[in-house]
Amino acid sequence: MPWAGTGRVISESGPPTLAIGALESFPVAFQESLFDAVQPAVDSSFSGVDRIKLDEESWLDYEPEWVRGSDRLFEAVLKTRTWAQRTRWMYDKNVLEPRLTAYWGLGTGVPLEPRLLEEMRACLSERYGVEFDSLGFNLYRDGQDAVAWHRDKIRKEISEPVVPLVSLGERRRFLIRPRGGGSSRVFFLGRGDLLVTGGKTQRAWEHSVPRVAHAPARISIAFRHGMDSRAYGR
Ligand SMILES: O=C(O)CCC(=O)C(=O)O
């Protein structure tokens, strides 16, 4: 059982708030890969990246297992982040978001730990030619944690934002479809996989991680630029 019920109504009025500050402990079922006992490292040459064109202006870069030894990184990220559960308005009710999140921003002056994350930030920034100045962490504790169809809230003046997403832990279905509906493409993301959205993908397409009956934990890390920190619920 997750320690806090998902979708629980916590207040009937007022602005969105963080329901919980720091979480001391919560049960997370994590299944290590039998083959994953190596020190975490990234493929800084991006040798396994495939570019997938969604339409004339929108693309994805996909490299399975871009992070080697990703189970060690999963554990380190789980322990070093301060996880919180945000709330959001659904119709007239303020409900808990069904996942935990954490945030890091360059502007805070806090070093990015564990150190491999800083290496990842540097090599992704170099490859995509933008400085990724914030990271959003998402922890899906079990199959009941999910995120509905959405586009990332990135400042309007950035018409073609690039957002690398690194997934750790158990693979979950990640769906992407044209904005407003249509048939979706499916990726199974976890275990160090890298998926980068670029071109008009964050403008013309939307994505989700749907609920499933049972799933061990998964963490996703979104590297962003030009994101208003309020979009992280801060
Ligand atoms: O967890 C994922 O793969 C997706 C995360 C996401 O879309 C978001 O936080 O905006």
Structure described in brief:
With 234 residues, the protein is mostly beta strands. 12% of the residues lie in helices and 34% in strands.
What does this structure look like?
This protein has 234 residues and is mainly beta. The chain has one domain: Sandwich (Jelly Rolls). Helix content is 12%, strand content 34%. The strands form four sheets. Strands 3-4-14-11-16-9-8 form a seven-stranded antiparallel β-sheet. A four-stranded antiparallel β-sheet has the order 10-15-12-13. Strand 12 and strand 13 form a beta hairpin. The longest helix has 14 residues. The two termini are 27 Å apart. The structure holds 2-oxoglutaric acid. The site of 2-oxoglutaric acid (AKG) has 12 residues, from strand 9, strand 11, strand 15 and strand 16.
List the topology elements.
Layout: E1 9-11, E2 41-42, E3 50-53, E4 58-63, E5 67-68, H1 70-80, E6 87-90, E7 93-96, E8 100-105, H2 115-128, E9 134-140, E10 147-150, E11 163-169, E12 172-178, E13 185-189, E14 193-199, H3 201-204, E15 205-209, E16 218-224
Antiparallel strand pairs: 1-7, 2-5, 3-4, 4-14, 6-7, 8-9, 9-16, 10-15, 11-14, 11-16, 12-13, 12-15
Bound molecules: 2-oxoglutaric acid.
